[in-house]
Amino acid sequence: MDVVKDQSEVLKTLKTVSTGMALSLKNDDPFYVEQETNTLNNIPQKPLVSDFKNKVFVIVPPQCASACLDALDKFKLFENTTLFGAPSSADSMYMEVRLADLPSSLGKVIVPNKVYVNRARGAGDFYKPDVAYKGLDWTTNVLLEQIKTL
Fold first, then answer.
1. Per-residue pLDDT tens digits for 107-138
2. Which of 1, 26, 87, 113 is most buried when burial is the number of CB atoms within 10 A of its CB?
3. CA nearest 83: which of 53, 60, 50?
4. What is the pTM of this model?
């Protein structure tokens, strides 16, 4: 942990996970389960209402995956959000994988270390844009001009 002592958020996460894993081992639990807030049980049944009434356009590039998808999960909780761009990528329920060489040296095995449980967005789910952009030029000025016409 000395390596990350100057990175407070990383250090906090490492300490939390380390304590949780130690407790799981002590209790003979096979897994340490993080308590996430973005699960099926915590998704509002209707869109959230905000006092921020401006229309919000979120530009979604086709390579939007992982943390970008997590952000879209949050943005889409609000009625005034419009996704503009391309369909996003998708991701699985697995993350933080470890690679290991096969004994034959002819390949590798991928072992997931972590898996989402009860995440609201399912494995392989992606976001379709509310307003599709089919142009080839994805520079900021071109996208903003397109959004201004909406």
1. 999 888 888 877 888 889 999 999 999 999 99
2. 87
3. 60
4. 0.63
